[in-house]
Design brief:
Chain A: Keywords: Amino-acid transport, ATP-binding, Nucleotide-binding, Transport. The structure holds two protein chains of two kinds. Chain A contains twelve helices and ten strands. By secondary structure, chain A is an alpha/beta fold. Chain A has a domain of 169 residues: Rossmann fold (3-Layer(aba) Sandwich), CATH 3.40.50.300. By secondary structure, chain B is an all-alpha fold. Chain B starts with a helix and ends in a 14-residue tail after the last helix. Classes of the chains: A alpha/beta, B mainly alpha.
């Protein structure tokens, strides 16, 4: 049984196609990773689920169902009420508000009453003790890692059944990225399904049970995370592993005129 | 010296009324990034409702209906007009509000004609004299009421869920939406609150020593624009400071007009704009306008 079912989703921003016929399943209780480079359509996929495409003048076709409930046609607030909450890329904490007010803002879309919110706050403080210590500081003054914790804590305040994470390790030191990864596991172990969008494939594949690879708006590969991690293509393209074939490629590249192929394109 | 204190207190009082108007202006700007040029017409609408009703139902109920009426007009403008333009460029939205303003003011002045309408306030032209300083009761009431409303508003803005959702939506609408905050509701409430505050301001702009509600009242309300702008368009504190600065400047410039005769007559009306220009030259974002606070 899949919690989130995305079927034949196509999204465009005006004349630009961002996603073409994408189908993704996010099973209940698991971590599902979506990998891909810049411009692959990862963030667009999340926007389609959280119904925030409208902010970017995007339009889509296809179906998105969460526990059998159709999400297309809902507003962002109704998606949150249905139990799907997104942590946006680049954290996007409310920098001018205190940490405590950021967490309060996260609880505004929650369905439960005062008690549920208080319980959620206790849990968030357990997961991220630093947020309790800095409750009255402005969020803009937190470090990058702390802001990522705040963004995740804020999303957890709504008591989500499915958490959408957009590049949680972006711009973080390896140690902090590792810590965030552990927290994602902890959140998942407590019963929240996770859809993890990442460029950092090694972290994502280690956490996830299943993974999808997006390439220029289409699903290029999908399967159990272990298998993908072992596949040559993923290793070469996303894990930066230099095996024999990769070395050969590099060799060939070395004989070509010395231009930065990435830039000269 | 007595004159100076009288002028200063009078200026603070009228300044607190400007602050009420500017506060509504800033709230709309913060919540929706709309520069609301229709603000003076909301004020006129609230004052008009109060003026029409006070004979029949008494002053206080009429004031209540006037406040509610202005809130409804504000919410209506948001719901039926501004909402259709959501996502449009900010300059488009500002121009839409100019259109709304023209329609509202035209209709209201048509109804008012050339009348000067009394609002039926209980203070009349009574004055209070303390130690040689004479103040109109209306001025004291204005200062107290405006101060109270502003305090209540700022506390609500800071501590209630409504305040949190307003501030979150003001800072980053898309992320606020991701948190389940309903942006439509936020902007609707901003317009309603702004309307209600404007209606209270309408009362104090038209009581003694001003003759009453007339066409020109919307011009008086316009002085809240320099107040909001010099304070910093996105700052509630700025609206307060700006309102008081404009009020005091205007009061002093008018009071000492005879000593400033080399500047010509009517310097009192001009002074708020002069102050605004000078402040903006030194601080382009206004006194309390936000400079980005972020660790990169």
């Amino acid at each position: 049984m899949a919690t989130l079912e995305i079927r034949a989703l196509s999204v465009g921003y005006g004349p630009v196609r961002a996603l073409r016929d994408v189908s993704v399943d996010v099973p209940a209780g698991a971590i599902t990773a979506v990998l891909g480079g810049n411009g692959a359509g990862k963030t667009t996929l999340l926007r389609a689920v959280s119904r925030t495409l409208g902010f970017h003048r995007g339009t889509g076709t296809g179906t998105i169902r969460f526990d059998g409930q159709a999400l297309e046609g809902l507003g962002p607030a109704q998606v949150v009420a249905a139990g799907v909450v997104q942590v946006p890329e680049g954290r996007q904490v409310f920098a001018r508000m205190t940490v405590a007010d950021n967490l309060r803002a996260g609880a505004l879309g929650a369905r439960g009453g005062r008690k549920a919110v208080a319980a959620a706050l206790t849990r968030v403080h357990e997961l991220f003790p630093v947020l309790a210590q800095r409750a009255h500081q402005r969020a803009g003054l937190l470090s990058g890692g702390e802001q990522q914790m705040l963004a995740m804590g804020r999303a957890l305040m709504a008591g989500p059944r499915l958490l959408l994470l957009d590049e949680p390790s972006l711009g973080l030191a390896p140690l902090m990225a590792q810590k965030i990864a552990e927290t994602v596991q902890e959140i998942n172990a407590a019963g929240t399904s996770v859809m993890l969008v990442e460029q950092n494939a090694s972290i994502a594949l280690r956490l996830a049970t299943t993974a999808y690879v997006l390439d220029v708006g289409e699903v290029a590969l999908e399967g159990p995370a272990g298998e993908l991690a072992a596949s040559d293509e993923v290793r070469r393209r996303y894990l930066g592993v230099v095996d024999e074939t990769a070395a050969e490629d590099a060799d060939r590249a070395g004989r070509a005129p010395r231009t930065l192929s990435r830039w000269s394109a | 010296m007595t004159t100076f204190i009288e002028l200063l207190l009078g200026g603070l009082s009228i300044g607190s009324v400007y602050a009420l108007i500017a506060l509504g202006f800033v709230v709309i700007f913060k919540a929706t990034e709309v520069v609301n040029f229709a603000h003076a017409s909301l004020l006129l609408a609230g004052g008009y409702v109060t003026a029409v009703l006070h004979d029949d139902i008494g002053f206080w109920p009429a004031l209540g209906v006037g406040i509610a009426g202005a809130a409804v007009v504000g919410a209506g403008v948001e719901f039926f007009v501004m909402r259709r333009y959501r996502g449009s460029d900010h300059s488009v939205l500002a121009i839409v509000t100019i259109g709304v303003d023209i329609i509202l003011v035209t209709e209201l002045t048509r109804r008012m004609g050339t009348d000067v309408m009394a609002l039926g306030d209980p203070w009349g032209d009574d004055v209070v004299t303390i130690g040689g300083v004479t103040l109109a009761e209306t001025r004291i009431a204005a200062f107290l009421v405006a101060g109270l409303l502003i305090t209540v508003f700022l506390l609500a803005f800071r501590f209630t869920s409504w305040g949190v959702s307003m501030r979150a939506a003001a800072e980053n609408p898309q992320t606020a939406a991701l948190m389940g905050i309903k942006l439509g509701r936020v902007s609707l409430s901003a317009w309603a609150v702004a309307g209600a505050l404007a209606a209270v301001a309408a009362l104090f702009l038209t009581v003694f020593p001003t003759p009453g509600l007339e066409r020109a009242t919307s011009l008086a309300a316009l002085k809240a624009f320099p107040a909001a702008i010099l304070g910093g368009l996105d700052s509630t504190t700025g609206a307060l400071a700006g309102g008081l600065i404009v009020g005091v400047t205007e009061s002093l410039a008018t009071g000492y007009q005879s000593d400033l005769s080399f500047l010509g007559r009517g310097i009192g009306d001009l002074a708020p704009y002069l102050v605004m220009v000078i402040v903006l030259l030194v601080r382009p974002a206004g006194l309390f306008g936000t400079k980005e606070l972020a660790r990169v």
